[in-house]
Amino acid sequence: MIASRFLQNEGNSIMRIELRPVEENDQDFLFSIYASTRADEMNLVDWSAEQKNAFLHMQFDAQTKHYLLYYPNAEYSIIEGVDVPLGRLIVEDRGDHFLIMDIALLPEYRCLGIGTFLIQELKQEAVRLRLPLVLRVEFFNPAVRLYQRLGFVKTREVNTVYQEMVWTPGSNEA
Fold it and tell me: Is the pTM of this model over 0.85?
């Protein structure tokens, strides 16, 4: 979906961004991304490092199995810079919309414009295919502000933790 592209961020540094399919040997990296997205939450619990690690592995494995079962046609990609893995992107074409299942970057690559860049690329594909982009995000996730800035609109509360947000081609610029 997204070929190798160059991103020029606000500091005028240029970074090559590309997606490649997830491979079997990426599992440790994928776990590290997942764990990094739960770091703030893990700081709130009074558990040992071993307990936190066991919990995160259990949750990661459960999420992985859930995604494979309920989203069998999803594209699982590693977001890379110049031969450096930066994060992961999981997207599924649901026929009537694109579902952004997960977009996550390692902490050191957040707030550099990479997420915005990837979403803009997905928006261009959505325009081309005339399909909305749908995502689900936790209410307290700071990425909500990014999605709002990029034109996503809350459409419903999925449960007490997640909200669904949608961007529709023609609703604003791709």
Answer: yes
